[in-house]
Amino acid sequence: MVDLPDLSGAAAMVALDCDRAIFTSLPSRTGEGYRLVAWSSGLRAEERQELTRRTPSHGSLVGDGDSARGSILFRLQSTGRAGFGFARVAGAEHTRRGGGRVWTDLLIADSLQAASACLHPQELMAAIAAEPAPKQPLGSSSLPCVGVAHSGSGPLSARAARASTAVAAAASLLAAATPCVIAAGASAAEMFDDALRMLPRALRGGIEACGGLRFSPSRGVRATVTDRIDQDTIRHTRGQGVQLVDLESKPPAVAGALAPWFALMARWWSEERGAEAVQLADRLGARWRLDDILSVAEFCEAIDRGDESAEALETFLMRRTAA
Asked: Which of 87, 138, 182, 239 lies 20 to 30 Å from 218 when distance is taken between CA atoms?
């Protein structure tokens, strides 16, 4: 058993400053479609235009229930800034299309700072949830900027231990920036969150992917974790070098330099040590190199065999973090 301290103290004070925007469908004097309805003063005109094109709208979420949600991590082509979007159902669609209205909270930040922060979507969503409700009517005043603190990537989903092999496969595809569409069934949003939790924090920054959303070329991301591979997906990806992966039928084997890390994570998760695994992954921040991450995996395997001590691992972690 590897005993690791949680993220607290100085680490919890590190924050990423973000502009904020809200994209949804509201009636107005000029129409009823989806649009940015509020934003921070720091959001540029070209960014607002691009966000309107790339942000999920009606029918984009996997599932039709009130609990449907999705996340998108991307880089703005217009300015290079990092974008984070969190879509959910917010009441009924007021137009004749029916169904749930999609509401997306967007955070936009400097790309270098975002890559250094290596945030998990859970940390960004927690920051949004802590903000006061936007002033009504929406758009009557600028949204304030949002500061995001390191708070840990949160607990695993309920099915994570049973799906550890599939999560490892999804995480390896995200880490390799493989152009792909990953079918994960109805729990696509949870699979996406868990795959990011399995990654060392150092590898979370700069990922361009989405989860819990139906595939669309307009998203402009490299990987989509969705519910199924349908005919529209096949048609849009044909000849584009995009790998189609069905995790529910046959997860691909994990390969590449990070295979020992993912083998450790999958084993710990299947042994119901997922919380311990995620806590370790959260500690390996932006300055951790591949060789050091693999050394941590070797340490943990040796500890589990009884060939090494947990104290030796903690010493290595402390020295590497302080370097």
From this structure: 138
